[in-house]
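## tool: complex_structure
## caller: assistant
## args:
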Amino acid sequence: MPSTEAAYTLQENAALKILLHAAKYPSAAVNGVLLGTVAQSESDLSAVTIVDAVPLFHTFLSLSPMLETALVQVASYAKQQGFGLQVVGYYHANASLLDKDLSPTARKIADKVHQRQPASCTILVDNTKLQEFCHQESEEVLQLWLQDSSGTWKPSSSDLLTVKSEGLSMRYQQLQAQHTYRRLFDFDDHLNDIAKDWSNDGLLNEP
Amino acid sequence: MTLQHLEDIREIIQARGQRASFEDLQTYLRLVRELKVRDSEVVAEYGVLLLRKFKKQLSTEEELLTTEQVATAAIDCKAFDAAFLLVTALRKRFPSSSQRTTRLVEMYFEAKGQLEKARDNYITNTLDVSPDSQYLLKRQVALEKTQDNIQGAIDLLCKYVDLFMMDREAWEELGELYLQAQMFSQAAHCYEELLLHQAHHIPYHVQYADILYTIGGSNGNNFRTARSYYAAAVQLSKGTNVRALYGLCACSAQLSGIKGSVGKDQEELGRKAAELLQKLYAARSPDKLKMVTELLKAQGLTSGASTSKAGTVLLE
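## result:
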């Protein structure tokens, strides 16, 4: 299914949660879904605003039962928040520092998300840019991928992704200093102890 | 001793900083070794502190174990200065033929990105002399993984488990590699092996069931088998393993869509799992209960639930 033409805005908290998830499990591949709203404009261009990221797994990303369980619950959660909030994308970070590609596992899950919402995108953490980002030498650490006309996920032009932040790398360093990643919980953590909250509500409120 | 104990001790040490006690540091590092946790920045930091301040209070054996542990952690988080000192200290205490210290040196160079040196000087040389060295055979597999050569890692590890078929860690790793390569039937076979070794290990039951469910199939056989393994996990865990409970519910939902596959007692399994899940959530995670109930409704396993003010769940 060809994707609708769209422009994507990624709000700071969503971007930070993706990075914190990757930081919490640096030797593993991690993934999650993106929550946001879709606004149809008069032209064919939709405006997708990503306001939150829900971290899902850091183990066994290719297995379906827990993924399906998580996707249904996160969709309910989004609906519960109101304001048209829904699942609008998928994010992924590879385990290997040199790996810049979207794995077959990641593509399958991204396809699943895209089936329910054709305007959805995929965000891949650009591992090759992580070191610069951590030294505050670059802000470009998240890469937008979209489906082409044959349904294959491809890295897309950075013009289509706007990250809404006053300084993502600086804010990230602040959170690192406070070890915030330790207080972020994904669905995997939740399955091991259901008292751990995968919505991470309030994690990024200013101290 | 559980992960929660580990977290509690870690918080105590974090609060006391440089004034952390010998007992706390020693207990923390011991627990990490026991529980096989990978939290390398913290282990490196606390380990270096313990060795710097309290080395004399450790027995020789524990000192060596701890040094090896902290060296590995330092390499893992690329603290190369600390790693160099620790690895060199171990090298001095043992002959150069020691496989265990050679392994550390190989990891050091691999982490630094000097892969040729790691392979030629430390893996190949050692395997020439001791071709059955488990430590270095595994490093060979790890080196393939580092270079993103999953198929190469799989081939080497298959040869390894042919020689060392009782090595559970190797079977677990092979299973994970197969999953990465989307080779689900082969991954399932690894877990069948693991279940032969340890028939009561709950995670193996759940992971095996998860794999079968993922393979799926329109005749429902895999869902039925998965269901029996989830059920075993629920029993072994006395109803507390949440993954197994969710798995039972998911299998029920899949099988209800397949003709002639649901007997009365099987229906009961799904419903009981749903009931248990709702009880667990009402007690420990009430703000998530609504989303769980909606999932179970969609799976046809509950007609609805309401929470009274006291927080108990009543099924309509």
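## assistant note: Strands of chain A lie at 6-11, 30-40, 46-57, 86-93, 121-125, 142-147, 153-155, 161-164. Chain A touches chain B at residues 27, 60, 62-66, 68-69, 72-73, 76-77, 80, 96, 98-99, 103-105, 190-192, 194-195, 197 (CB under 8 Å). Handing back to user.
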